[in-house]
Amino acid sequence: MSKIKENKIQIWLEKYDCFAITGKDNKKFLNGITTGNIVDLNNKVLQTCWLSPNGVLKSLLEINCLENQLEVIILAGNTSEIKKYFNEIIFPSDDVSLSETFSINRIQEVDDMNSWRMNQPIFFKDDDKEYDFYNDNPINMNNNDLQLWKINQAIPSLDKEINGKNNPLELGLADLIDFKKGCYLGQETMSKIRNVSSLKQEIRVWTAMDSVFNLESNNKNIYNNENKEKSVGYITSIYKLGSQTIKGLAMIKRKYLDTESTFFTDNYCQISIDKSIGSTFL
Protein backbone atom coordinates (compact mmCIF):
# COMPACT_ATOMS: atom_id res chain seq x y z
CA MET A 1 0.00 0.00 0.00
CA SER A 2 1.45 3.38 -1.00
CA LYS A 3 2.01 5.92 1.71
CA ILE A 4 -0.17 9.03 1.54
CA LYS A 5 1.89 12.20 1.76
CA GLU A 6 1.09 14.25 4.82
CA ASN A 7 0.12 17.83 3.98
CA LYS A 8 1.74 19.54 6.95
CA ILE A 9 0.75 23.12 7.77
CA GLN A 10 3.79 25.32 8.37
CA ILE A 11 4.56 28.99 8.96
CA TRP A 12 6.77 30.89 6.53
CA LEU A 13 8.31 33.72 8.55
CA GLU A 14 10.98 35.85 6.92
CA LYS A 15 12.24 39.42 7.12
CA TYR A 16 12.23 41.55 3.94
CA ASP A 17 13.10 45.04 2.77
CA CYS A 18 10.08 47.28 2.40
CA PHE A 19 9.23 50.87 1.54
CA ALA A 20 5.97 52.81 1.43
CA ILE A 21 4.48 54.80 -1.45
CA THR A 22 2.16 57.59 -0.38
CA GLY A 23 0.18 60.31 -2.17
CA LYS A 24 -3.12 60.29 -4.05
CA ASP A 25 -1.46 59.04 -7.25
CA ASN A 26 0.34 56.09 -5.62
CA LYS A 27 -1.88 53.37 -7.14
CA LYS A 28 -1.81 54.87 -10.62
CA PHE A 29 1.97 55.28 -10.38
CA LEU A 30 2.65 51.70 -9.30
CA ASN A 31 0.11 50.31 -11.78
CA GLY A 32 2.18 51.65 -14.67
CA ILE A 33 5.33 49.95 -13.42
CA THR A 34 4.29 46.48 -12.28
CA THR A 35 2.34 43.63 -13.87
CA GLY A 36 -0.53 43.43 -11.37
CA ASN A 37 -3.72 45.46 -11.18
CA ILE A 38 -2.86 47.94 -8.43
CA VAL A 39 -5.69 50.38 -9.21
CA ASP A 40 -8.38 47.93 -8.08
CA LEU A 41 -6.39 46.75 -5.05
CA ASN A 42 -8.31 47.57 -1.87
CA ASN A 43 -6.94 46.55 1.53
CA LYS A 44 -5.42 43.35 0.16
CA VAL A 45 -2.00 41.91 -0.59
CA LEU A 46 -1.00 41.37 -4.21
CA GLN A 47 2.02 39.58 -5.68
CA THR A 48 3.34 41.28 -8.79
CA CYS A 49 6.43 41.61 -10.98
CA TRP A 50 8.71 44.46 -11.96
CA LEU A 51 10.05 43.87 -15.47
CA SER A 52 12.62 45.40 -17.76
CA PRO A 53 11.28 47.12 -20.91
CA ASN A 54 11.88 43.88 -22.86
CA GLY A 55 9.94 41.76 -20.36
CA VAL A 56 12.74 40.22 -18.31
CA LEU A 57 11.91 39.69 -14.63
CA LYS A 58 13.87 42.10 -12.45
CA SER A 59 12.04 41.73 -9.16
CA LEU A 60 9.28 39.78 -7.44
CA LEU A 61 7.23 42.17 -5.30
CA GLU A 62 4.34 42.05 -2.90
CA ILE A 63 2.07 45.05 -2.46
CA ASN A 64 0.32 45.52 0.86
CA CYS A 65 -2.54 47.96 0.32
CA LEU A 66 -3.24 50.00 3.45
CA GLU A 67 -5.68 52.85 3.92
CA ASN A 68 -3.21 55.69 3.27
CA GLN A 69 -0.26 54.01 1.60
CA LEU A 70 1.08 51.10 -0.42
CA GLU A 71 3.81 49.01 1.18
CA VAL A 72 6.18 47.47 -1.37
CA ILE A 73 7.80 44.28 -0.04
CA ILE A 74 10.80 43.07 -2.05
CA LEU A 75 10.49 39.27 -2.07
CA ALA A 76 13.33 38.94 -4.58
CA GLY A 77 15.23 41.82 -6.12
CA ASN A 78 17.70 44.62 -5.60
CA THR A 79 16.08 47.16 -3.27
CA SER A 80 18.40 50.04 -4.19
CA GLU A 81 17.88 49.46 -7.91
CA ILE A 82 14.11 49.35 -7.51
CA LYS A 83 13.90 52.56 -5.48
CA LYS A 84 16.31 54.37 -7.78
CA TYR A 85 14.16 53.56 -10.81
CA PHE A 86 10.93 54.45 -9.03
CA ASN A 87 12.31 57.82 -7.94
CA GLU A 88 13.62 58.62 -11.43
CA ILE A 89 10.22 58.25 -13.12
CA ILE A 90 8.20 60.34 -10.66
CA PHE A 91 7.03 63.41 -12.58
CA PRO A 92 6.77 66.80 -10.82
CA SER A 93 3.01 66.64 -11.30
CA ASP A 94 2.72 63.24 -9.57
CA ASP A 95 1.45 63.27 -6.02
CA VAL A 96 3.74 60.40 -5.05
CA SER A 97 6.53 60.00 -2.52
CA LEU A 98 8.65 57.06 -1.38
CA SER A 99 9.61 56.41 2.23
CA GLU A 100 12.98 55.28 3.51
CA THR A 101 13.58 51.53 3.36
CA PHE A 102 12.66 49.59 6.49
CA SER A 103 12.46 45.91 7.47
CA ILE A 104 9.21 44.04 7.80
CA ASN A 105 8.39 40.55 9.04
CA ARG A 106 6.31 38.62 6.55
CA ILE A 107 4.24 35.74 7.96
CA GLN A 108 2.20 33.25 5.94
CA GLU A 109 0.58 29.88 6.57
CA VAL A 110 1.73 27.43 3.87
CA ASP A 111 1.89 23.69 3.18
CA ASP A 112 3.71 21.23 0.93
CA MET A 113 0.95 20.60 -1.60
CA ASN A 114 -0.41 24.03 -2.53
CA SER A 115 1.01 27.16 -4.13
CA TRP A 116 2.50 29.78 -1.85
CA ARG A 117 0.15 32.29 -3.47
CA MET A 118 -2.96 30.58 -2.10
CA ASN A 119 -3.01 32.28 1.34
CA GLN A 120 -2.68 35.96 2.19
CA PRO A 121 0.34 36.91 4.32
CA ILE A 122 0.36 39.30 7.25
CA PHE A 123 3.07 41.79 8.21
CA PHE A 124 4.57 42.99 11.47
CA LYS A 125 7.41 45.25 12.52
CA ASP A 126 9.79 44.02 15.21
CA ASP A 127 8.20 46.18 17.88
CA ASP A 128 4.61 45.07 17.18
CA LYS A 129 3.27 43.18 20.20
CA GLU A 130 1.48 40.59 18.03
CA TYR A 131 4.76 39.66 16.35
CA ASP A 132 6.05 37.89 19.48
CA PHE A 133 3.29 35.30 19.18
CA TYR A 134 4.23 34.38 15.60
CA ASN A 135 7.97 34.62 16.19
CA ASP A 136 7.80 31.90 18.85
CA ASN A 137 5.42 29.61 16.96
CA PRO A 138 6.69 25.99 16.99
CA ILE A 139 5.50 25.36 13.42
CA ASN A 140 7.73 28.07 11.95
CA MET A 141 9.98 26.58 9.28
CA ASN A 142 13.69 26.60 10.09
CA ASN A 143 16.14 27.89 7.51
CA ASN A 144 16.85 24.49 5.92
CA ASP A 145 13.17 23.56 5.66
CA LEU A 146 12.38 26.99 4.22
CA GLN A 147 15.05 26.70 1.52
CA LEU A 148 13.80 23.28 0.48
CA TRP A 149 10.17 24.44 0.49
CA LYS A 150 11.09 27.42 -1.72
CA ILE A 151 12.82 25.09 -4.19
CA ASN A 152 9.73 22.89 -4.44
CA GLN A 153 7.61 26.02 -4.89
CA ALA A 154 9.98 27.36 -7.60
CA ILE A 155 10.17 30.77 -5.94
CA PRO A 156 12.79 32.68 -7.95
CA SER A 157 15.89 34.15 -6.31
CA LEU A 158 18.00 37.16 -7.29
CA ASP A 159 21.07 36.26 -9.38
CA LYS A 160 19.75 32.72 -9.82
CA GLU A 161 16.38 32.53 -11.60
CA ILE A 162 16.25 36.36 -11.71
CA ASN A 163 19.37 36.56 -13.83
CA GLY A 164 18.68 39.16 -16.51
CA LYS A 165 17.46 36.50 -18.97
CA ASN A 166 14.22 34.89 -17.79
CA ASN A 167 10.74 36.35 -18.13
CA PRO A 168 7.92 35.70 -15.61
CA LEU A 169 6.01 33.41 -17.99
CA GLU A 170 9.02 31.09 -18.20
CA LEU A 171 9.25 31.16 -14.40
CA GLY A 172 5.64 30.05 -13.95
CA LEU A 173 4.42 33.46 -12.75
CA ALA A 174 1.76 34.04 -15.41
CA ASP A 175 -0.91 34.47 -12.73
CA LEU A 176 0.92 37.58 -11.45
CA ILE A 177 0.31 39.35 -14.77
CA ASP A 178 -2.94 41.16 -15.51
CA PHE A 179 -3.25 40.99 -19.30
CA LYS A 180 -6.40 43.13 -19.27
CA LYS A 181 -5.08 46.21 -17.51
CA GLY A 182 -3.50 49.25 -19.14
CA CYS A 183 0.10 49.84 -20.09
CA TYR A 184 2.96 48.80 -17.81
CA LEU A 185 6.68 48.29 -18.21
CA GLY A 186 7.32 45.21 -20.39
CA GLN A 187 3.66 44.82 -21.44
CA GLU A 188 4.32 44.60 -25.18
CA THR A 189 6.72 41.67 -24.78
CA MET A 190 4.43 39.84 -22.35
CA SER A 191 1.46 40.16 -24.70
CA LYS A 192 3.51 39.00 -27.67
CA ILE A 193 4.80 35.90 -25.88
CA ARG A 194 1.33 35.03 -24.59
CA ASN A 195 -0.43 35.57 -27.92
CA VAL A 196 1.96 33.53 -30.03
CA SER A 197 2.74 30.89 -27.36
CA SER A 198 6.45 31.37 -27.93
CA LEU A 199 7.85 30.20 -24.58
CA LYS A 200 11.17 28.52 -25.23
CA GLN A 201 11.80 27.21 -21.72
CA GLU A 202 10.09 26.51 -18.40
CA ILE A 203 11.27 26.33 -14.82
CA ARG A 204 11.46 22.88 -13.23
CA VAL A 205 12.51 21.25 -9.97
CA TRP A 206 15.33 18.74 -10.35
CA THR A 207 16.64 16.03 -8.02
CA ALA A 208 20.00 14.27 -8.31
CA MET A 209 19.54 10.53 -8.74
CA ASP A 210 23.23 9.67 -8.21
CA SER A 211 25.24 9.94 -5.00
CA VAL A 212 28.02 11.91 -6.69
CA PHE A 213 27.29 15.46 -7.75
CA ASN A 214 29.94 18.05 -8.53
CA LEU A 215 28.79 21.15 -6.66
CA GLU A 216 31.91 23.06 -7.73
CA SER A 217 31.44 22.60 -11.47
CA ASN A 218 31.20 25.85 -13.42
CA ASN A 219 29.27 24.07 -16.14
CA LYS A 220 25.60 24.27 -15.16
CA ASN A 221 24.31 22.88 -18.46
CA ILE A 222 21.88 19.97 -18.55
CA TYR A 223 22.17 17.39 -21.34
CA ASN A 224 19.89 14.83 -22.95
CA ASN A 225 22.31 11.93 -22.37
CA GLU A 226 25.66 10.93 -20.85
CA ASN A 227 27.45 11.82 -24.09
CA LYS A 228 26.33 15.46 -23.80
CA GLU A 229 24.97 15.42 -27.35
CA LYS A 230 22.43 18.20 -26.77
CA SER A 231 22.09 20.87 -24.11
CA VAL A 232 18.46 20.91 -22.96
CA GLY A 233 18.72 23.58 -20.28
CA TYR A 234 20.76 24.82 -17.35
CA ILE A 235 20.76 24.71 -13.56
CA THR A 236 19.88 27.95 -11.76
CA SER A 237 19.73 26.84 -8.09
CA ILE A 238 21.37 24.06 -6.08
CA TYR A 239 20.44 23.00 -2.56
CA LYS A 240 22.03 20.08 -0.71
CA LEU A 241 19.57 18.32 1.58
CA GLY A 242 21.92 15.96 3.37
CA SER A 243 25.01 13.91 2.78
CA GLN A 244 23.77 12.76 -0.64
CA THR A 245 20.42 14.15 -1.80
CA ILE A 246 20.63 17.34 -3.85
CA LYS A 247 17.78 19.35 -5.36
CA GLY A 248 17.45 22.60 -7.21
CA LEU A 249 15.79 24.58 -9.96
CA ALA A 250 16.55 24.59 -13.67
CA MET A 251 15.35 26.16 -16.89
CA ILE A 252 14.49 23.41 -19.39
CA LYS A 253 13.77 23.86 -23.11
CA ARG A 254 10.11 23.12 -23.74
CA LYS A 255 10.64 20.80 -26.69
CA TYR A 256 12.37 18.28 -24.41
CA LEU A 257 9.79 18.36 -21.62
CA ASP A 258 7.18 16.32 -23.47
CA THR A 259 9.43 13.38 -24.17
CA GLU A 260 11.99 13.28 -21.37
CA SER A 261 11.97 13.49 -17.56
CA THR A 262 15.53 12.33 -16.91
CA PHE A 263 18.65 14.24 -17.95
CA PHE A 264 22.36 14.49 -17.16
CA THR A 265 24.63 17.18 -15.72
CA ASP A 266 28.26 18.01 -16.47
CA ASN A 267 29.72 15.30 -14.25
CA TYR A 268 27.41 12.65 -15.74
CA CYS A 269 25.12 12.75 -12.72
CA GLN A 270 21.60 11.67 -13.64
CA ILE A 271 18.80 13.99 -12.53
CA SER A 272 15.03 13.70 -12.56
CA ILE A 273 12.80 16.63 -13.54
CA ASP A 274 9.49 17.45 -11.87
CA LYS A 275 6.97 20.23 -12.08
CA SER A 276 6.93 22.64 -9.16
CA ILE A 277 4.17 23.07 -6.62
CA GLY A 278 4.02 26.85 -6.71
CA SER A 279 4.33 27.79 -10.39
CA THR A 280 1.58 27.76 -13.03
CA PHE A 281 3.29 24.73 -14.61
CA LEU A 282 1.34 22.22 -12.56
Notes on the structure:
The chain has 282 residues and is α+β, with helices and mostly antiparallel strands. It has two domains: 144 residues, Gyrase A, domain 2, CATH 3.30.1360.120; 83 residues, Elongation Factor Tu (Ef-tu), domain 3 (Beta Barrel), CATH 2.40.30. Helix content is 17%, strand content 31%. It is built from six helices and 13 strands. The strands form two sheets. Strands 1, 2, 3, 4, 5, 6 and 7 form a seven-stranded antiparallel β-sheet that branches. It has a six-stranded antiparallel β-sheet with strand order 9-10-11-8-13-12. Strand 12 and strand 13 form a beta hairpin. The longest helix is centred in the middle third of the chain and has 11 residues. The radius of gyration is 20 Å and the shape is globular. The protein starts with 9 loop residues before the first strand and ends in an 8-residue tail after the last strand. The model has no long low-confidence stretch (mean pLDDT 91).
In short:
With 282 residues, the protein is α+β, with helices and mostly antiparallel strands. The chain is built from six helices and 13 strands.
In CATH, the architecture of the largest domain is: 2-Layer Sandwich
Shape by Cα distribution: globular
State Rg.
20 Å
Helix segment tally: 6
The CATH superfamily of the largest domain appears as Probable tRNA modification gtpase trme, domain 1
Oligomeric organization of the protein chains:
single chain
Total number of beta strands: 13
Question: Would you tell me the structural class of the helices and strands?
Answer: alpha+beta
